[in-house]
Amino acid sequence: MKKKISVLGSTGSIGKQTLEVVRNHRDKFEIIAISANKSIDILLSQIDEFKPKYVAVYDEESFLKLKSILKDKNIEVFCGMEGLKIISSLDEIDVLVTAIVGMIGLLPTLEAIKNKKDIALANKETLVCAGELVMNEARKYGVNIFPVDSEHSAIFQALNGENNKEIEKIILTASGGPFRGKKKGELINVTKNEALKHPNWSMGQKISIDSSTLMNKGLEVIEARWLFDIPYSKIDVLVHPQSIIHSMIEFVDTSVIAQLGVPDMKLPIQYALTYPNRIDSNFEKLNLSKIKSLTFEEPDLDTFPCLKLAYETLKLGKTYSLVLNSSNEVLVEEFLKGNIKFYDIPKYIEKELEKHNGISNPTLDDILQIDFTTRNNIKEMIGG
Ligand code: NAD
Ligand code: MG
Question: Are 239 and 180 in contact (CB under 8 A)?
Fold first, then answer.
């Protein structure tokens, strides 16, 4: 039986690579639904190739355009948040790939979980802003969350057959991003284009900026805390510029298990879709004698304060990681528009965290309210 897939955010970097995995294994996978914010040209070519039964477009104007283009075709077109929720919880699907960027993925992911759909999770912001709630819901409905993020896929693979309780430490590797080795003074005036140039991965703009500030690694520490139900004090970050070791686990007996591979997101995407099995692939093979050396160094928390801030929010618990994430989403957008400087990102996040009165066991309404307030506060700070 083919695995039936819905893709939230099919037009982005992870979304396109998900479709590539499907293209290479048409006998194993079938695309039932796809979605995007505005990119209807890409959606049209994906519809042509994969013949999904459903498509959702968030942006209303783009939805109306696509709907009229597709009026004679046998495909249902949905709009807005309602549309994203519908394609995330369809009766026909087995798994939802959350390849959407930002906290906007939270509500559709919760809808999928309530309808007992497994999740292949790339959308880390969902776990950063509501990790406890999402994991509790997944447990309640018996839903599997398979990590797509390469570090978390590595941990998931290293954990195969092991006992969570025997983990001494999770070691998340980080490439260090485009500014590795630089000092604060050299980065004050970096431009958007410099920040977008990742040395090892080609990714969407938001995660590329997050990689340049090391916020991406901070978000991943929080993601790992919830995915693997492990205290933050047992999660370390190690800079490994070659991005060959995707992460590792040290066990209580000091044994370390790592997962290695050429940097290519298609592997973790495919594994999330085939777990517990592995299937053949045409991905580039790892040739260690060609790579010759793998190097490691400690992260520089003075130059990259966002990573430190992420750890601090885990220490504070409550709703602090949510505030970190919502602030960061707005600030990255403003940095991309050229409205703020590189170090304004951690500066404003820190200010907003200081103001926040965290609450324990937040409900979904609490989370949405805090997100709303945080975004407004940050916009006000930038404007004023
Ligand atoms: P991207 O910007 O390339 O793509 C984002 C996708 O989300 C697009 O299809 C876009 O249309 C859709 N989208 C954005 N806003 C939307 C909205 N309001 N409604 C509906 N759709 C919307 O991003 P990406 O690099 O593919 O990253 C996606 C997620 O995966 C992020 O959470 C990122 O952190 C995570 N991730 C990405 C990579 C990578 O290599 N790109 C690796 C690990 C994790
Ligand atoms: Mg990652």
Answer: yes
